[in-house]
Every structure is written in C-alpha cells, then in structure tokens.
Amino acid sequence: MPNSAAAMSKTGMVTKIHTRIRADPFSAHYELVGKELGRGKFAVVKKCIEKATGKQYAAKFQRKRRKGADCRMDILNEIAVLELAKANPYVVALHEVYETSTEIILVLECAAGGEIFDQCVADNDEAFTEKDVMRLARQILSGVAFLHRNNVVHLDLKPQNILLTSARPLGDIRIVDFGLSRRMDSITEVREILGTPEYVAPEILNYEPISTATDMWSIGVLTYVMLTGESPFLGDDKQVTFLNISQVNVDYSPDTFDGISSLAVDFIKSLLVKNPRKRATAEECLSHPWLNPHPHPHPHRHARSASSLDEPETSQSESEPDSPVPS
Ligand code: ADP
Ligand code: MG
C-alpha cells in the first residue's frame, strides 16, 4: 500500500515507523495469561509472557478494518508516536509489533496497576489523596510536556488512558492510547474525535483549531476528577454535557472541594479556561505553586503567590525536562 497517499488522508498523522513489523506468529513468542487487561473502542489488551525471557507484557490487539474502513495508517501513526516518545519514562514503552492478515498487535510494557479511572471513582479509603494527585499530576505533565515539545498532541487524555505501574502501593503513571494523537503542524479538522464528551475541550465542539492547549483542558478535567471523584462537565445527556463545556459551567464550591487546598483549585482554574490561548501550558503547570510547595524557606528564592503563573519559573523545566520528578 502506498504509505504517502494514505498518510495524507488525515491531517497530522505520522506513519513513518522504524520498528520492525513481524510477520511470524505472535503465539510462537508469547503466551497469553490471565484475563483481559482492558478494552477500548477497537482494541483488546491482554497480559502475556515473552517465552524467551519470562517477562510480562501487555498485547494490544487491533483490527486493521473498522466499520469497513482501512485503519492500518491510524495504527502506524500510534506506533510512530510511541517510538518518538520512548525517551520519556511516563509514556508506555513499545516492545514489539506483530501483523497478521486482520490485526496489528502492539506488545507494550505492562502497566499492572490498571487505569487511574478505578481510583477516581473509588470510595474514600481507596481514593487518591491530594498528595497522591500532586505526584501523579507532575508525572502526567512531565509526559505531556515531552509530547508537546515534540509537537505531538495526545487528544484523548482521560482516566482510562492513564495507567499505573502498580495500584498498591501507588506506583507511577504510564500514558497509553496514542490512537488519536497528531503532529501539530496544521491540524484544524480532526472531527472524528468526539468520542469521549466529558473530556473534550470547547474548541473541539466548535470545530476550531486544536493545539497543545486542547490536551491541557483535558488535564484540567482529569485533575478535577482525581481530586473530587466527580466529572466536572458530565450532564444527564450529551447535550447537557456539551452545554456545560461550552459555558465552562464548573462547580468550585467548598462542598465539592472539601479538604482540598485552594492552590489545587487555582491550578484547575488555570486549565479550564475557554480561550485555548489563555490556558496554562504543561511547562507553566509544572511551575505552578500547587506542584512546587516550598516548606523550607530557601535563601535565594522569594515566596511565590498564585500569580506566579504569569511568570513561569523555567529553570527547573529547562535543566532536567525529562527526568522523573522526585516527590
Ligand atoms: P483503545 O484505543 O481501544 O482505547 P487503549 O490503548 O486505551 O485502547 O487500551 C484499552 C485499555 O486496555 C486501556 O484503557 C487499559 O485499561 C488497558 N491497557 C492498555 N494498554 C495497557 C498496558 N500497557 N498495560 C496494561 N493495561 C493496558
Ligand atoms: Mg483508550
């Protein structure tokens, strides 16, 4: 199939990949174990063991044809983004790729702790503490800042696509599902994205240009859900949800944010901003006082107020942009 022609069919897709696509049978090298790890719109993900090493992986099985359309290029785009992001510890690692007549199988690092979704909707004793969310938010932002520096937008950031290396004790995050990701060069029409209404930014609903700011909106929603257990825009039906989003109708009442710091609320407010150009960037978020508490006075540093978002501190992000943030 001519790669270039198909590559132009959807704006912003990257389909040039370096990973060898294996045509020998997956089952010759891996044994499926246990039950399904998860499933999405088109993929089934199963735990497997590599026979040669005994190591555990997650195999994502994706059909090349979906609803009668050839989706091989979408899968190659996903592989290309995973290759590009392999230097970042918070993006799931791609180990191998297999192709059959009907499917492409991505063999991924296994994030054994499952989706953060489960702990977002959990009861109080299982739910995240604010301290947990601060650490996880730093990791998500570190991964997303890496993508954005490389001109890639994820476009499907939600609790089902943020996984944990372990649930108890709470491990580190891994960002998965780059099926909707795009190069940012000139994306204006990515209209098939209306998949997960609750997390979609206002500009997507209005078919306006999307950018890295579109991911930042989703991170605002994600942080809200992780802290409160409630989805800020979810209405009784899709229409109500969309209206809530376009009006930025958000509940910041002390009732909803009981026991949560005002810096956390301030952080979310910097992201749930209708105008994408006025939304905080990933780098700005990493410098936000909520994620940079200074319990011990530092002789060379002035105390910061919430307004420091206007003057993002860049030294930290410039010196070690991709290293895990110690907690
Ligand atoms: P889709 O594009 O169909 O949404 P995803 O890549 O999001 O597919 O995978 C579907 C689900 O499978 C995820 O929400 C998660 O629960 C699980 N999953 C995906 N990748 C992994 C992984 N590397 N380790 C463990 N579970 C995974
Ligand atoms: Mg998914």
UniProtKB/TrEMBL annotation:
One of its GO terms (biological process) is apoptotic process. Its main location: nucleus. It is an enzyme of class 2 (transferase). The keyword Kinase applies. It is found in: Nucleus. The keyword Kinase applies. One of its GO terms (cellular component) is nucleus. Keywords: Apoptosis, ATP-binding, Kinase, Nucleotide-binding, Nucleus, Phosphoprotein, Serine/threonine-protein kinase, Transferase. SMART domains: S_TKc. It catalyses: L-seryl-[protein] + ATP = O-phospho-L-seryl-[protein] + ADP + H(+); L-threonyl-[protein] + ATP = O-phospho-L-threonyl-[protein] + ADP + H(+). ATP binds at K60. Pfam families: Pkinase. Residues 31-291 form the Protein kinase domain. This is Serine/threonine-protein kinase 17A. It comes from Salarias fasciatus (Jewelled blenny).
